[in-house]
Every structure is written in structure tokens, then in C-alpha cells.
Amino acid sequence: MLPSEILRQVRRIEIKTRKLVDENLAGKYHTAFKGQGMEFSEVRGYQPGDDIRAIDWNVTARSGEPFIKKFIEERELTVMMLVDMSGSLEYGSLEKSKRNLAAELTALFAFSAIRNQDKVGCLIFTDQVELFIAPKKGRKHVLRLVREILAFEPRGVRTDIASALAYFSKVVKRKAVVLLISDFMAPDFKKPLSHVASRHDLIAISLRDAREIEPPSSGLFTLEDGETGSEHIVDFGSKRVRDAYRQRANERFETLALQLRRSKVDHIPVRTDVPYDRALTQFFEMRELRR
Description:
This protein is of the alpha/beta class and 291 residues long. The chain has 2 domains: 3-33 and 74-290, von Willebrand factor, type A domain (Rossmann fold, 3-Layer(aba) Sandwich); 38-73, no CATH class. It has helices spanning 3-33, 57-63, 98-115, 139-151, 161-171, 190-199, 239-262, 277-290, and strands at 38-45, 67-73, 78-84, 119-125, 129-136, 177-182, 201-208, 220-224, 231-235, 266-271. The strands form 3 sheets. It has a 6-stranded mixed β-sheet with strand order 5-4-3-6-7-10, with helices on both faces. The N and C termini lie far apart (44 Å). The relative contact order is 0.14.
């Protein structure tokens, strides 16, 4: 892809995602992630209506009167985008590939973050950590993240989510909001997933293409594994083959969803053929209700 084409694509993504942020998502983002970090402010006397869970029992015991701890919300969050750039992300049966979708989602969350005066960073990975961009603020920084995702040429083609999460844990110590964007076609990553989720606010965004869910209705097709290069000829004229294809796709998605729930990781499933604004709105509303 020529640099001029990349710049035009970055510009289109900026216009689209900033419009969504300005019109619908900025306030929801703030509500969903506010209070992720709390700093101690002071101890003051208990007043009717105060939450009894905030009582400072040590001070209360010494003084003989009830006191509560007051906390203030940390104004600045760190948002980290962990973006899968393996071979399978290049796939797209329609106009948009999973890689393009990942770039749009990165831009949307990043613009929401800087609108809220938060810092945004990015970690691009395949079966190795390809690039780490430290968290910063500002529009130019966000556009750089999007440009890197669109234009970056990774060395690896397979996926290793476990090593990406392990690397992230080493370099980012302060609690962060972590968006893990991938199609999750990877070996076991349960342990590092739970480890990161216990220390950070981890959200998994799973990417799927329409053709990965619903097979063609007929004909012989050559299916190529984007990460291994292996090819298989499949006859989708057979109903038995189509049903087996759908069943396998559903089982894989349900297994992922179950693993994320067990690790207490929020999950946003998105597809290349369906507008993602509804899925994101539902996610933000769920977070608001849970709070």
C-alpha cells in the first residue's frame, strides 16, 4: 500500500470514529471508565447517609467517634491497545478486513481517551511483540497509532496472546484500561489473561468475519490458513459440510466467551460486516449498570 493511500485511509478512519465519539460515545466512555483509579484524600467525621463501608475503623477506634475515608477519582487514566497483527487479521471477505476493523476500533477508543484527557499507548503483536508505543496524549499520537496498525509489516504471522500479555505485564505496572483486540486464533492463554485481568481493567474485543461464521451456499472453495499457509479444498455444496462448518465456528466462539467470563474479562464481539457502534453502546451501558 502506498503512503498516500495509507494517509487517506487514516483520514477516513479519523473522520468516521471522531464523529461516533463526538455524537455518541464520549460521555459513555467517561462513565464506563471513571473511578478506575482512586487516590486517598482525607479522613472526616461520619455524616448520616455516608456509606458505612468507607468507615476507617482504626481512626474510629482511637477517637471513639465514627470517621470515614474519603477518596478522589484519579483524573488521568492510561489506556493500552493490545492489537493482534497476525496473518489471520488480513482476512476480509467483504470490503473490510479484520485488520482494518482493528484500526477503526483503536482509533475510536483512542479518540475517546484523549477527549477525556487520558493517555493512550499501543502494543502490536503476532507470535512475538512487534512494536510497543508508550502511552501519550494528543491527536497526532492517536493518528500515529492508527497509521502503524494500517501500514505495519510484522515479522511474524502466527498468534501468541500469552507472550503479548506477559510482556505487557512487565512494562506497564500502573493499573490501566487494556483493550485486547484479536480474532483469538491462538494457543492457550488462560493463565496470563487471568493475571492481567486481576491487575488491570481488561476488555477483550473479538474480531470475526462474516465468512468465518456462515459458509458459502455452494461450490468448491480453497481455504487457506492465514497463519500457516496450509490449504484445503472444501465442497460447500454439501449440507453436512456447511452444518459442520457452522457448528465448529459456534463452538469456537462459545469456548472463547466462556474462557473470558471465567477470567472475569469483559467481552465485545464485533464483526466486519456489522456496524460496531451498537455493540460498543451495549458494552458501555452494561458497564454503567454494573457500576
